[in-house]
């Protein structure tokens, strides 16, 4: 049996302890021990022996924590934990991908603000800073992060690239799914949670489209043990605030959907990790990963009654079937989806 010995700096264990406490990382690859997600030797060994490359996809919160560790005058524990993650990535040669966080911050305005480019430049500077200095910050030995000179960025070209498409693929579709779940959550008061879940699955199959991440969001909202704080819309809030809440929920789903898109399409030598401090959303992703791995034999007894488990299995079978799929008769899907957006925005009273 082959053994490799890796030597790490004295501060590595304390940095890892910070990340263990935060527990921000979710993954889809097999590990003999769940705690190995924070074991740098595992990554280095898999890189050296199997040629694997690892990428951490950042949500907007953690991206902002990393930036604010330098930008904010008053530092807090989240800033230090985020920099601990940067140190961990250096220990393990893991790359960061802040793309979705950047797109969420841009939120598809017609113009890309200079601030967004400045933030990306700062992020790269922090990512390229000396590991020892970053560790000192993460462990509260200093409040300062010494940055290298910024790398050259063609600002004009980057702005053009970021605003090239008005919407990322699937965003509007996920937006409809979020609004349908919200309408069921608040306005179908005669239905039980089980009935709402059944109604959502039937609607996805017959009237719209099936989404694994939206299905898992529904399970965590309406299942036997509903996860709090997943629903961000609230009838008491203003139309403007609720529109933003729905947009935020859609970005949450989009990031999860992107995780699966990367997972399905990834080469054998690449692995992806999702970093988020949103614990409710982590539960949605973990359920989706479990279903993706195990399919119809997945054990969902913690979330679903026996009758709903049977319905869930039947829904999976129906996804590949054309039976009762009225949406197949739609000639112009974009117009059809736009009409749905208008309908549900009016129903939820968020349409400008």
Give an overview of the whole structure.
The protein has 352 residues and is mostly helical. It has 2 domains: 12-162, no CATH class; 171-266 and 279-347, no CATH class. Helix content is 57%, strand content 5%. It has helices spanning 12-22, 40-50, 60-71, 77-92, 99-106, 114-127, 131-138, 155-162, 171-187, 193-206, 212-222, 239-265, 279-294, 306-319, 333-347, and strands at residues 25-27, 53-58, 95-97, 270-275. It has a 4-stranded mixed beta sheet with strand order 1-4-2-3, with helices on both faces. Helix 3 crosses helix 6. The chain is globular, with a radius of gyration of 22 Å. The termini are far apart.
Key words describing this protein structure:
single chain, 352 residues, mainly alpha, 2 domains, four-stranded mixed beta sheet, 15 helices, 5% strand
Cα distance, first to last residue?
65 Å
What class do helices, strands and sheet pairing give?
Answer: mainly alpha
N-to-C SSE series? HEHEHHEHHHHHHHHEHHH
The figure for the number of domains is 2
Task: Summarize the SSE layout with pairings.
Blueprint: H1 12-22, E1 25-27, H2 40-50, E2 53-58, H3 60-71, H4 77-92, E3 95-97, H5 99-106, H6 114-127, H7 131-138, H8 155-162, H9 171-187, H10 193-206, H11 212-222, H12 239-265, E4 270-275, H13 279-294, H14 306-319, H15 333-347
Parallel strand pairs: 2-3, 2-4
Antiparallel strand pairs: 1-4
Helix pairs in contact: 1-4, 3-4, 3-6, 4-7, 9-10, 9-11, 9-12, 9-15, 10-11, 10-14, 11-13
């Amino acid at each position: 049996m082959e053994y490799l010995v890796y030597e790490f700096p004295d501060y590595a264990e304390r940095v890892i302890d910070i990340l263990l406490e935060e527990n921000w990382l979710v993954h889809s690859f097999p590990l003999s021990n769940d705690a190995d997600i924070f074991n740098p030797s595992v990554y280095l060994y898999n890189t050296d022996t199997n040629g694997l490359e690892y990428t951490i996809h950042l949500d907007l919160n953690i991206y902002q924590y990393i930036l604010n560790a330098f930008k904010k005058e008053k530092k807090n524990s989240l800033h230090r934990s985020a920099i601990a993650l940067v140190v961990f990535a250096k220990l393990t040669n893991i790359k960061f991908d802040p793309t979705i966080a950047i797109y969420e911050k841009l939120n598809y305005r017609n113009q890309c603000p200079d601030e967004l480019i400045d933030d990306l430049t700062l992020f790269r500077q922090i990512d390229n800073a000396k590991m020892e200095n970053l560790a000192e910050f993460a462990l509260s030995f200093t409040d300062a992060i010494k940055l290298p000179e910024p790398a050259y960025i063609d600002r004009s070209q980057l702005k053009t690239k970021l605003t090239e498409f008005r919407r990322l693929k699937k965003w509007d579709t996920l937006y409809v799914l979020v609004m349908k779940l919200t309408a069921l959550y608040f306005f179908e008061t005669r239905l039980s949670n089980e009935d709402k879940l059944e109604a959502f699955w039937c609607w996805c199959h017959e009237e719209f489209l099936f989404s694994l991440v939206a299905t898992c969001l529904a399970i965590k909202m309406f299942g036997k043990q509903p996860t709090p704080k997943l629903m961000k819309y609230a009838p008491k809030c203003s139309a403007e605030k609720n529109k933003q809440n729905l947009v935020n929920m859609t970005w949450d789903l989009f990031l999860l959907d992107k995780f699966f898109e990367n997972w399905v399409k990834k080469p054998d030598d690449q692995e992806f990790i999702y970093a988020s401090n949103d614990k409710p959303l982590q539960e949605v992703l973990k359920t989706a990963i479990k279903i993706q791995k195990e399919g119809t034999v997945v054990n969902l007894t913690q979330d679903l009654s026996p009758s709903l488990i049977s319905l869930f299995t039947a829904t999976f079978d129906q996804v590949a079937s054309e039976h009762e799929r009225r949406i197949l008769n739609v000639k112009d899907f974009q117009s059809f989806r736009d009409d749905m957006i208008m309908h549900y925005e009016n129903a939820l009273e968020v349409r400008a």
